[in-house]
Sequence to fold (448 residues):
Amino acid sequence: MAQAGSAWRSRFLLVGLILAHLTAISHQVDGGTGVSLLQRGVLSVLSPLQRGVGASASLTSELWRGWTFHRETYADNRKLREQVRTLETELQLRSYRAQESVRLRELLALQQAVPLDTLAAQVVARDGVPWFRTLMLDKGESDGVRLDAAVISATGVVGRVFAVGPSAARVQVLLDRDSGAAALVERSRVSGVVSGQVSAAEMGGEDLALKYIPERADIVVGDLVVTSGLDRIFPKGLVIGRVRFVGEVRGLFRDVRVEPSARFSRLEEVLVVRGAQKPLETPRSVE
Amino acid sequence: MSRALWTALALVGAVLVETGLAHLVASPGRYLDPFLLVAVYCALNFGETHGMLAGAAAGWVQDVIFGGRVLGLSALAKLVVGFSVGLAAGRFLIATTAARALIVLLAVVADALLLQWLASVFSVEVRGLPPLALVARATLSALVGGVLYALVDQRVARSRL
Fold:
């Protein structure tokens, strides 16, 4: 037993010594490339490992650089988004101011054009309830606004004041089915009454009905319709719109529809007529 | 005195013999290898472990003092030869002078072939030994070894008595 152990020990020693000698010899032998065989062997064993470690290190470095770059980019992106938002807001504000300026210039032009005492007012609310077509103005009794005062815009008649408070007033626009304005066809002087249409108003349409037009009246599509002043609310000669449809006779009168000149959905500033009403010599609007 | 010390003294003797021969003949290594004689004697008398250690030590001394640019080739060759002879001595009865001489002869051939093979493996330039020269070297080493071993054994036996 001890002899067998000794034999194994000597074999292990032999193998160990052979390996040690091979290592020692390899260390001295030049592999032809300036490095010893041992170094070459060690390098050939270690180089894949080193390559792996190097690749892992560079990958980690790349990932880290990518991460930091991503983080910086993310921060930059967020900052730039905020800047874009700020600039967009500023741009919108400038655009709004520019549009407002144009509207106010138009309104001023109208104010100077019509021989009426008018007051500029801003639309602060509209259509508070779905059944009525109304506007809320920021001017009221204290500013000289009175009940039934005519409200006009740069493009045409808007409606009349039907409720007035100390500093605000409510306007019934022509589109409302209960509204009405004495009108006439500017070319043929045919008279009628313009009001909102029940069906159109319910469906959100913006066509007006020109009522009480006789069957044989001279009226064609495209005719300009203006206020006649007979209702003692709207001064004579303000533009209401143009005839868009001349239909069949219903009962005693012809079915006529008028496309209003005033852009009701985009009204922001209007003029409220304050003084005594005088008839206009020619229809007035800046358009 | 321990075996290691005797072995060391024998190696010193081998160095002296090799050095002395160098003054007598050119290239004494071509005729006799006293270091291998030491290794083989140790292997025959003390077994494979001592034989390979003695072979390795002898080879290193030979390489360091008389060797070339690359050290360790003789050491490795003698290590293997020492182990093999020790292994053979444990399996077979190698007691007569003739048998020992034969072992020395084979060991010298094996040592030379092994060294040349290792040199070729490691691409180390070594001076070639023609077969005839190898046979002459092996024969002379075997004769010297046989005689030397017998004298040493007699001396050891006398000292034990």
